[in-house]
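BUG: 3D viewer hangs when loading the predicted structure for this chain

Environment: internal workstation, default settings.
Expected: structure renders.
Actual: progress bar stalls at 90%.

Input used:
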Amino acid sequence: MTVLQDCRSREKLVVVGAGMAATRFVEELTNRAPGRYDILVIGDEPRLAYNRVLLSSVLAGELSVDDIELKPAQWWRAAGVEVLSGRTVIKINAAARRILLDNGESVDYSKVVLATGSRAARLPIEGADLPGVHTFRDVQDVEALSRLGKEMRALVIGGGLLGLEAAYGLARRGVDVTLAHVMDRLMERQLDAAGADILRRLVEEKGVRALLNANATRINGSGRVENVEFADGQTIPVDAVIFAVGIQPNADLARQAGLDVGRGVKVDDGLKTSEAGVFAIGECAEHRGVCYGLVEPAYEQGRVLAMRLAGQDASYGGSVVSTNLKVSGVRVFSAGDYLGEGDARRIVCKDPRMGIYRKLVVRDDRLVGAILIGDTRGATDLLDLIRSGAKVSSLCDELMFGPPMQEAA
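Structure tokens produced before the viewer hung:
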């Protein structure tokens, strides 16, 4: 039986941010070192942590907000963790090891972990602040978009993961949706041209019109949104505009505290910032010049930091970026060097009619990248091979035409 230490003898650990990265970190730490820290989690949203990846399902009406809650209140209590919801940290005094809250209260700490996440970006164009212009990032955004009535016209700007998810959720609600993307293909950071073309057709079959090479330059309206102008002269009448053009790390608090900040809060391989006792994980952190906007790297960082704070040896060397999601109702997996330029060998199998695309990228007899669309079974094995660097010469046929593909054929 584990005996918790007396609170007065434990180190005070404050986690600023109460999202997915913070939750995974606290879970890992309390499992590895139960009772070692007196933990306080502070989140500015008025609810417990939830799964942002599933927000499109909430928007579509397939799930409720309660369904996507990560941990219930009783879990936090059982773990001995205090959670302050609806509170904002407005200042960190790193020298005094003290934080100040928006209600005037202050909290002393021994260690503090910044897991402040990111915020939705908006295009710096005229009309971006008109009523009827939204972002798609949190529950409040979903609640606002859920008030759009059927047959209303919505324009989603951005053809990455967030844009596709927002468009799909709105289409499922009966909203007339157009998705505009400035690039020549959807999800250009995860897919090649052939894979993106299949995804576009599948998305359009689900009721979302996709405009590529579409550069929005101005939002017009008298009192609220009425139409959007594009660089090519096209104008689209709309009732709502949703920005899904990327994210910006929430690093203002760290910058104000005098920490080294680039695009995000700079951390080393131990997730330490430039100030003693201050750490950062998740979308707010910048590691070796990279800010990851995905869940898995945040989880990996949270696990490494939990191990270190539990007294175990661990080091974060970066993440193999991968995507394994249901995007706009379509299964999509992408990992590693999916383009495979230069001397890489590219193995491709596609059936546009069935909406299936599989691509493996092999270099020096090692799997370095992969794309799966439509049927993503086997994705976990592919990611493991990419990470391990194991030789795959005897596995290529099995990986490409394994049992799932043979059954489909």
